[in-house]
Amino acid sequence: MLTKFAFFDFDDTLIHGDSGGKLLKYYLKKHPLSVFKLFKVVYHYALYLLKIEPLNKAKSAWLYPLDKMSDQEIEKFYQEVLEPCYYLNVIEELKKKKAEGYTIYICSASVEAYLRFCKLPVDEILGTKTVIKDGKYTSQMIGKNCKNEEKVKRIQEVIKNHNLEIDYDLSYAYSDSLHDIPMLKMVKNRIKIDTKDGHMSPFEIE
Q1: Contacts of residue 187, Cβ cutoff 8 Å, sequence gap at least 6
Q2: What is the rounded distance in angstroms from the CA atom of residue 92 to the CA atom of residue 94?
Q3: Which contiguous run of DSSP H or E holds residue 191?
Q4: By CB count within 10 A, which of 10, 151, 156, 176 is most buried?
Q5: At what angle do helices 19-30 and 55-62 cross, to 10 degrees?
Q6: Under a CB-based contact definition with an 8 Å cutoff, are residues 37 and 64 in contact?
Q7: In this structure, is the dihedral angle defined by the CA atoms of residues 86, 194, 96 and 118, taken in order, positive or negative?
Q8: How many other β-carbons are positioned within 10 Å of the β-carbon of residue 81?
Q9: What percent of the chain has pLDDT over 70?
C-alpha cells in the first residue's frame, strides 16, 4: 500500500545533542567511581580508530551504564534528561505530520535500549540494537550501527513486513547530518535541522 512517511533522526534532530554522551554523563554523575571505566572506553575507541577493532566493541564499551541500570532507571534517564532536550518546534512538526495521517518512524544510531521509552506518537522506533539477556537490555551491540545505509536497510525491512510502499512525492525525512543522505534520498521532501536551535530548512543534496 502506498503510504506517506515521515522519517526522523533522533540525536540533534528531535533532541539537542548526543544521547549516548548524555547517558554516560548521567550515569557518571550518579556513580562517580565508575569514571575508571572510561579508560576502557578510550582504549576500545583508540583500537577502533586504528582499525584494529570494529565499531561494535567501542560502542559497547561506551554503553556500559546499560549493564548496571534497571529498566526503571533507563526510563527515568529518558524522561529526565532526553525529553527536556527536545527541539519543541520539531516535536510539533512530528505531531502535525501524525495528525495529517503520516506514518512516523524514528531511525537512529542511538540504541533502542532507551529509545523504546519515547512516548511521542510514532509508529516504529528503529535504533541500534543491543543484546537482551534475561529480559534486560545490555551494552553489547548486535548487528550494525543504525547509521548511513543501514538506516535504509532497516526501514525497507519494516515496510516490507507491513506490505507498505513509500509515497516518494509526499513523504518527508528530517535530519541534521550528511550521514543521513541515504535515508533522505528515500523521499522527495528533505528537511535539515539546525543543531543550534532546531530551525528547519530544506536539506539541499548535491
Answers
A1: 5, 7, 166, 168, 171, 172, 173
A2: 5
A3: strand 189-193
A4: 151
A5: 40
A6: yes
A7: negative
A8: 18
A9: 100
Q: How far apart, in Å, are the Cα atoms of 83 and each of 10, 66, 120?
A: 11, 18, 10
The H or E element containing residue 74 is helix 71-77
β-strands 5-8, 165-166: how paired?
unpaired
- Spatial contact of 176 and 12, defined as CB atoms under 8 Å apart: yes
Plot region of 134 (φ>0 → left; ψ -120 to 50 → alpha; else → beta): left
φ, ψ of residue 134 in degrees (nearest 5):
55, 40
35-70 tens-digit pLDDT = 777 777 777 778 777 788 787 788 888 899 999 999
> Strand 124-133 and strand 136-142: pairing?
antiparallel
